Every structure is written in C-alpha cells, then in structure tokens.
Amino acid sequence: MDGLGRGCWIEHVGLRTGVDVPISIGRSLAPLSCGAELWHSANLPTKPHTQAAPPGADGRFVELVREWWPEVARDLPWRASRDPWEVLVSEVMAQQTQVDRVIPKWKAFLKRFPTVETAAAATAGELIELWDGLGYNRRALNLHRCAETVVADYEGEFPETVAELMALPGIGPYTARAILAFAFEHDVAVVDTNVGRVLARLNARTLSANEAQGLADELVPTAAGWEWNQAILDFGAMVCTKRSPECSQCPARSVCKWSGEGADPAVGSAGVSSTQAVFAGSDRQARGELVRQLRSGPVLVVDVAEVFGFDDTERTNRVLRSLFRDGLVVEEDGRLTLP
User: Which domains does the chain have, with CATH numbers?
Assistant: First the structure.
C-alpha cells in the first residue's frame, strides 16, 4: 500500500504561477472548488519555520522533515482546498485505492456533487454509480449517509471535534482527524499506514494504537497542523516506504533509532497495513461484480449465481444477503437494482 492506498496519495497537475509568492493557508482562505487549478507549492512555507516544535530528538525530527518537504511536496488537488466536503471525498476515495484511479474520479465526483447538500439530495445509487473503478462500494454508501447526516443534523456544516466527526457514518479516527487538520487546520495528528510506519521505525519498536496516536500528537508543531501532517504523510510515502525505505538518503537518519538495521519494527505496528487477502475468486470480487453490472441496469435474482461465478447455492445466497444487509442492492419483483 506504500504511497498507493491510504497512504494513497495523488499527483495534481495544477497551474504553475512561475512566481514564488507566499499565500496564506489560514482559515481566511475561501474554499476552492475541485475545478480550481492552483499549484500546490504556492501553499508551502517560503520563510523559516517559527512555530514551536517538540523538544529533543522528536523536535529535531520535525525540523528535519519540515526542511526536506517544501522541495519535494506532492501536488495533491485537495491541498488547495479547505472545504471539508472536498477533503472528506478525497480521504474516502484514497483508502486502499491506486493513485491513478483516484485523480479523475475525485474530479468527476465533485463535478457531479460539489457540495454536501447535492450529495445528500441524490440517491445512494447515484453515488455508487460514480464509484465505479474505486472498489469497496460501501464507502460510497457511507459517504451518502454521512452527507445526509451532516445536512439533517448540522445544517450542512461539518462539526469540528473528533467525537462529533466520528459519530458520522463511515468516519473513523483517521478520517476525523484528517478533516480537522486539512479542512479546518487544527493542530491534530493523523495516523495512517505511512505515519504509523514512520513512528514505529523512528522509535524502533512496535506500537499500540494509543501509543502511535499519542506519539503523533506530540510531534505536531503549534499552529502548523496542516503543513506538518502533509509533510509526514509525504515522508512516509516517499522516503520511509514499506518495501524499500531509503534509509541511506533519509533526511532524518540522524535521529532515527532504527535506520534500517535489524527487524523492521513497523511490521505489525498500529496503523500499518498488512497483506490483503487474495481478491481473485473472493466474495469481495463477486460483490463488486454484481454492483458493477447493476450500474448498467437491473439484474434478475435468478441470474445472480452466474454473475458471481458461483456454482454453490449456499455461497450465492450468503453473499447476496450480505449485499442486502449493507444496503448496496435492493430487490423488487425478482429484479435487483442499486438503492
């Protein structure tokens, strides 16, 4: 999943101004639509860092990564936005999904559903239709349920606490903090597979979930949550990678307690992705194939086994029941459709 899934980070081709001009990234910045093409480096710091970093080796790690980042930062389309809906869509799409598949999907999705209100007003099936090629279709369903809840309970305004965000459908600890850090610029730390791997290696030990989050929180420089989280995510995706970490070229090698020597402490550590089950021939593949065909129109219940590629009636019924249970399909008069 290195730099591909959540850690799955996306390249943005924007408008290069050709001029190095400092631009405010504070809350006063108006939210940008997905059509806004702004070169991401314009958002990067152009002056020496003055925000307080943690003391000791941790503080030095923060300084080293922040010094490294501006020259290599990836251009992600949502980094030009502070709209929580745009940020949420990007985070949900980027979970366990290849980079090159997300870029056009993110833009197309926001063109169709530019606001949380437009998504809430649509059917769940309309969101699922646009999810084609991204996999894990329940994410689209949860995104729709989340939009409905934000509109109904918060008048279309996203809440600004971890607890309230995590109460929304489909939003877990990482996504809640990502919204706070990237849309609202709060000084909170995000811990995904890339960050979890960096923290384990930096400390040369396998971490529990609470330890990983606590260590991540301690690293966030005051008033620099947006910048720091983007920097450490890029560091994990580009330098401290899963399979071939560039320890010899690492800008933070001097403060890393592992430095590529001995067993990798990131294996089995909190937040770090593990090997996925085989997809071919799996129930997940069968579920996805039925949803894919439903995007083109109804499917007869009697044809489901053929769509699944199963010759096992019990397995066919079990997988179909799971789709009903998740709300991904509905049935009327022997015909299946998207909700």
Answer: 4-76+188-255 (1.10.1670.10), 83-182 (1.10.340.30), 283-337 (1.10.10.10)
